[in-house]
Design a protein that fits this description.
The longest helix is centred in the middle third of the chain and has 21 residues. The protein starts with a strand and ends in a 12-residue tail after the last helix. The radius of gyration is 26 Å and the shape is globular. It has 467 residues and is of the alpha/beta class. Helix 17 packs antiparallel against helix 18. The chain contains 18 helices and 14 strands. A 6-stranded mixed β-sheet has the order 11-10-9-12-13-14, with helices on one face.
Length: 467
């Protein structure tokens, strides 16, 4: 169930209605008053702004109940979420003031010509003399936006703006939304390559599978700046971080566990890859048709890659069959596909990450009595698996060491850094992953990513504190 806050501006005629009547009407309709602001006081009439927390199902009921009260005039109904997006959520501000001709001559013509010439003669100076060293393009075609699907580039823009806000607030990275009006793989690749000179990194976002695999692979190979598909790798990194701590809670080793991953799309494939990199020796990838098995033949290149891995099991079957005896279930598929009876077939000390949004693969209330550690992608339950923990710190580190790419070692280092934010004394069944707002996350991920980039030869610059 989705919740929202609305602001009701009401004009009250106190000869016919008291505020208690208003409050009762809102409460009886299912709303929860969170704040009251008096806009215009008065003995006979007054105007007040009332902020009400409501679910989508009862928002209209709250408004209708107030319309039926004598002495109440609804002046306006505002949605706080929409108000937050008015005019967009990001803007660009200059670092230097331009107040006179002397200022203008330095930041623009004629002085800027000397800087342009310096970059032309030594292209690497773009990192020190332009915004390139701290700028990321957040690129989408709008084909796989949140749980909304293919809604197009314009409708995807609010998500990309939000991503840019998080980049800036959490890691001081200047990110800008690039929403492309094309679904053609080649055109997307050409366009991103064409705009890349001004960016220090590319964050691909909400591009549907399987095109996202080729787009990322081609861009990573053809550009000399890091390209990171967050839906794939951000999700995978935070899943591994949560799993590291969940295994500590239940007392199991990664080399000993049997893991079922349900939903082998962009995120599922990347999770499987990282599980293998982390040391998992028994892996069962499952999609709608059933388990992907070692030695099988599959139409999708990434499925075939999984089928060629020695850690992937040979046992076929649907989810209900292959989940038997599993230590860990990781779901990145769709809601309501897993039952309590199926969870009960897993090994003791079960770990279930049900990350479908907005409805997890199994209802938390059904799963919690059966499992030792439970996590979702939602913020209203403990152990939220959210890639906001990942991309700010990964890009901060990659930009600071001018990495050519973001490789598996850097991603695994990021996962371990996130897990390490939760101390031994804090870790428990309900706390395996740090808060999105824990200030240690970005700095620890940055440090780990830089160290891994240096160790694997991907760094082109060593920050002073690492020398």
């Amino acid at each position: 169930m989705a919740f929202n806050s609305i602001i009701l501006r009401l004009e009250l005629d106190h000869r016919h209605v008291h505020f208690g009547n208003v409050a009762s009407a809102i409460s009886n309709a299912g709303g929860d008053i969170t704040s009251i602001d008096v806009i215009r006081p008065g003995q006979d009439t007054s105007v007040r702004d009332i902020t009400v927390h409501v679910s989508d199902q009862v928002e209209d009921q709250v408004v209708d109940s107030l319309r039926q009260l004598p002495g109440v005039q609804i002046v306006n109904v505002s949605d706080r979420t929409f108000l937050a997006h008015l005019g967009g959520k990001i803007s660009i501000h200059p670092k230097l003031p331009v107040k006179n001709r002397d200022d203008l001559s330095r930041v623009y013509t004629p002085g800027v010509a000397r800087v342009c010439t310096a970059i032309h003669e030594s292209p690497e100076k773009a990192y020190s003399l332009t915004v390139k060293r701290n700028t990321v393009a957040v690129v989408t075609d709008g084909t796989a936006v949140l749980g909304l699907g293919d809604i197009g580039p314009a409708a995807a823009a609010p998500v990309m703006e939000g991503k840019a806000m998080l980049f800036k607030q959490l890691a001081d990275v200047d990110a800008f939304p690039i929403c492309l009006d094309t679904k053609d793989t080649e055109e997307i690749i050409r366009t991103v390559k064409a705009i890349s000179p001004i960016f220090g990194g590319i964050n691909l976002e909400d591009i549907s599978s399987p095109r996202c695999f080729e787009i990322e692979q081609r861009l990573s190979a053809e550009l000399d700046i890091p390209v990171f598909h967050d839906d794939q790798h951000g999700t995978a990194v935070v899943v591994i971080a949560g799993l590291i701590n969940a295994l500590k809670v239940v007392g199991k080793q990664v080399e000993q566990i049997r893991v079922v991953v349900n939903g082998i799309g962009a995120a599922g494939v990347s999770i499987c890859k990282m599980l293998l990199a982390a040391g998992v020796t028994r892996l069962v990838p499952v999609d709608r048709e059933g388990a992907i098995v070692r030695g099988g033949s599959y139409p999708y290149p990434m499925w075939q890659w999984l089928a060629d891995q020695p850690q992937v099991e040979t046992r076929p079957g649907k989810l209900r069959e292959v989940i038997q005896g599993a230590d860990v279930f990781i779901g990145v598929s769709r809601g309501g596909i897993l039952s309590g009876a199926e969870v009960a077939l897993m090994a003791e000390n079960r770990i279930v990450f049900a990350m479908a949004n907005p409805e997890p693969e199994i209802k938390p209330e059904e799963a919690l009595p059966l499992v030792r550690v439970f996590a979702t992608g939602r913020s209203d339950y403990p152990n939220q698996i959210n890639n906001v923990l990942v991309f700010p710190g990964i890009f901060r580190g990659a930009l600071d060491c001018r990495a050519r790419t973001i490789n598996e070692a850097m991603k695994l280092a990021a996962a371990r850094a996130i897990a390490a934010v939760v101390s031994d004394s804090e870790r428990n069944e309900h706390y395996i992953i740090p808060s999105l707002f824990n200030e240690q996350v970005v700095s620890r991920v940055r440090k780990a990513v830089i160290e891994a980039a240096i160790a694997t030869g991907e760094a082109r610059r060593t920050p002073p504190e690492f020398r």
